[in-house]
Prior knowledge:
425 residues; alpha+beta; Elongation Factor Tu (Ef-tu), domain 3; CATH 2.40.50.100; 3 helices
Amino acid sequence: MVDIARPESVVRKKKMKRAAFGVAGLTVILLVTVFVSRLKPAAPSVDKNTLWPDVVKKGPMLRQVRGTGTLVPEDTRWIPASTAGRVERIVLRSGADVMPDSVIVELGSPELEQSVVEARLQLESAVAQLVNKRAELDSSLLTQRASAANMDSEARQAELQAQADEALAKEGLQGAIIAKKNRARADDLASRTKIENQRLELAEKTLKSQLAVQEAEVSRLRTTFDLRRQQLEKLKVRAGIKGKLQVVPVEVGSQLAAGANVARVADPGRLKAELRIPETQTRDIEIGQVADIDTRNGHVAGRVSRIDAAATNGTVTVDVQLTGELPRGARPDLTVDGTVELERLDNVVNVGRAAFAQENSTMSLFKVIPGCTIPQMDCDAVRTQVRFGRSSVSNIEVLEGLKPGDQVVLSDMSAWDAHDRVRLN
């Protein structure tokens, strides 16, 4: 068999054809590479079962704020020690039911006991002196009365004698000088009788004033004695009100100063709720607003009765007076949850309150593309800027960025902050 040599033009065409295919292949590869490089990265997938979706709606919205707190008695009283003393005996302990005259703690004070004895002796001495003084004045008054009566008798006798002598002198049976002498004596005794009666009247008037000083001293000492005796009686510290004994912060043998707290008594039948609400949410709370208290064993209605003027650790204490019947098991210091109704808004666009959503702020949410429904199908969600208005416990007003019927993801999506689109599957 004889080989036939190919023409050189055929070989050249074949080489040119191979070069053309190589260039075309390189061009295709380059174009594909450029196209792929310009493609956006695929949206990350998110398990929709772990998300909290909601639908934007338009209608009424109840604005509320929520806080936790405790039930506390409305009427709580610290019982102080009225006088200084040492704790001798603790009669009742925490948890005991007390009446106003129930003795909680007995104190002892030897100094006070001694002062009571001294005050009693001083009073008895002053009373004895008053009795003696009254007796002396009565005796002096009687003497004055007797002297006045005797002088009056002598004056009457002298007047009769003078009248008789004057009559005899007119008849010439007796000398005129004797008659004049007896008349002068009668007039003198009459004047002395008048003076004596004035002295008697003055003595009777000054009798009370002379006794007043001694009576005032007796009254002062009696007041002192009564005060010391009351202080001695108050060494038995009593409850003062009907209720339940909460705290007895003293021990036997401890020395207490006057005014030191001995016990705390509360009326367990009258309770109120003290709620601690974040200070950023309290600006719209007002006295008288309706509240609901959850005791975890039932709900009870109430109204705001007091708002603390200062914040503590970022919260403000709000007192709620309970107007409904307390559920079974409600007791002081019970932990409760409370919501305060601020206002009712009509016909506003609102949605569930997203994680980290704040009143009157703007944040981004992932909005599900129209036509897709969670959880019936897999959906894509795109990042959307939303401006919020007034807020409540679980809802917030939408001002811009969403419309009624839009589906949004309310869960914390901070893990996908680098993406503007996610796949929910």
